[in-house]
Amino acid sequence: MGEPTLAFLGVGADDEELYRLLLRAGEAGRAEFARNHSLDVRQMQDACARLAALGLVGEGAGGALRPVPPAKAVEGLVETEVRRLRDALEGQVVTRRIVDSLIAERGRRPAPEDAGDAIQHLEGMEAVRAAIDELTFFTWAESLTTNPTGVMSPENIAHARPLDERILETRGQHADTDRCRRSR
Hints:
It is elongated, with a radius of gyration of 32 Å. Residues 174-184 have low confidence and may be disordered. It is mostly helical. A hairpin with a 5-residue loop joins β1 (57-59) and β2 (65-67). The protein has a two-stranded antiparallel sheet. The relative contact order is 0.06. The protein has helices at residues 13-25, 30-36, 41-54, 70-96, 98-107, 125-137, 154-183, and strands at 57-59, 65-67. It is 62% helix and 3% strand. α6 packs parallel to α7.
């Protein structure tokens, strides 16, 4: 197996060779680097632009080329490739309308024979509050509710506070009962 290359990360052979030369040379002035590596001004400008776009070089003092440390350079190349691959995959998902087809499948499932009381449709804030009040009466581990309008109003907070306190008190009573059982 030959020397490892950056080709699989989208770096061309010429660009990789220049990056490796810069790693060996350290920071180098553009003109000096071009002269020592048989590049004309246009080639050097193009190469610098490509290496900078790939995240392999930065600009040091006085415009000198400074190679990015290898670990950081490879990390950036990997992130770029992952982003490119993700964009391509997401494009394929949209083009092929896969999510829409899966949603359609869900719509084709038969209704359950007996949903029982698993789903309850409530209308109005008072009905919702009454249902939450009933649920919190029997809750002692955790109570999670959502507010689809975003930030809770002072009125909602005032209504929720006693329910939360009830859960905390009930939870404390259950914890005391559990401790008594374990101590026996």
